[in-house]
Amino acid sequence: LTGDDASISLDEVEPTELVGTTWVVTGTVANQGVSSVPTDATASITISDDGTVGVNTGCNSGSGDVEVGDDTLTFGPIATTLRACADEVARLEASVLEVLQGDVDYEISADTLSLRSGEVGLELTAQR
């Protein structure tokens, strides 16, 4: 698109790689609604090419096994540390761990990763 004083061009944005990227949780999904993440907590996941996932729940950290399919991730048990968390952060942690169980559908659009497991899910953004 061009005009007298401006020009706009659009480029196709390639999806961010699933494996090797740290994905930061920006929202939790339940009952078709998205809730924000507490401002004092950063939850994230990083999937490694060796079939493991590193998890930060916003309070505790941990890891487990994950199998990457074309549009499904299959998580094994996630072992985490056991620090006590403030109420809001504990709810975030519960949401993260609830989603990262068994078969989880995923979709990547540019730098956004959506994870869905039944009625619950996570929205994540690639860390830059």
Strand content: over 45%
Q: Provide the helix percentage.
A: 10-25%
Structural class assignment? mainly beta
Tell how many strands the DSSP assignment holds. Answer: 9
Strand order of the largest sheet: 1-3-4-5-6-7-8-9
Total of helices: 1
| Unreliably modeled segments | none
Radius of gyration: 17 Å
Bulk shape: globular
Give the overall pLDDT as a whole number: 93
Sheet bearing the most strands, described? Answer: 8 strands, antiparallel, barrel
Q: What is the string of helix and strand elements?
A: EEEEEEHEEE
Q: State the distance separating the first and last CA atoms.
A: 29 Å
Record the SSE blueprint.
Blueprint: E1 22-30, E2 33-36, E3 44-47, E4 52-56, E5 61-68, E6 72-80, H1 87-99, E7 102-109, E8 112-117, E9 120-126
Antiparallel strand pairs: 1-2, 1-3, 1-9, 3-4, 4-5, 5-6, 6-7, 7-8, 8-9
Fold and architecture overview:
The chain has 128 residues and is mainly β. Helix content is 10%, strand content 47%. It contains one helix and nine strands. It has one helix at 87-99, and strands spanning 22-30, 33-36, 44-47, 52-56, 61-68, 72-80, 102-109, 112-117, 120-126. The chain has an eight-stranded antiparallel β-barrel. The model has no long low-confidence stretch (mean pLDDT 93).
